[in-house]
Amino acid sequence: MCMTSNLDKTDASTGDRTIARAYHREFWPGMIGYAVVLTAVLLWGDLDGESPWRFVWAILPVVPLLWVVVAILRHIRRIDDYQRFLLLQGLAVGFCVAMLAAVTVAFLEIAGLGLTGDGWIIYGAGMLGWLVTSTVSRAR
Q1: Is-contact 97 134, C-beta < 8 A?
Q2: Mind listing the pLDDT tens digit for each residue in 52-66?
Q3: Main-chain dihedrals φ then ψ at residue 2, nearest 5 degrees
Q4: Terminus of the chain with fewer CB atoms < 10 Å: N or C?
């Protein structure tokens, strides 16, 4: 019979599962709120209309995302140092990629290339940088 140390296990500990549940309990209401508000904005916001209220409608989906930011900050405080290092490493690379994308898009626009949805390009690049860095870091 082979005895294995508990340190050799790769599954999450009870504490890690408790932390993950707390994070999901705080994160998902913000994301659901975002989806509901975004749906309302897309249905009734008249974003391509002429009313000055369209600007209020346009930023309305940001409000429930503040809940998500708070959930992430609380999660960072709960996790251990190594998990925090991995998370912050992914966030840092994602931020750098987003800044590189922002500068690239800005220079392309100065040169006359009319990009539509350039904010989404920057957002997507940053999120992709975060995802790839986090995935590679956790695989090591």
Answers
A1: no
A2: 999 999 999 999 999
A3: -100, 125
A4: N
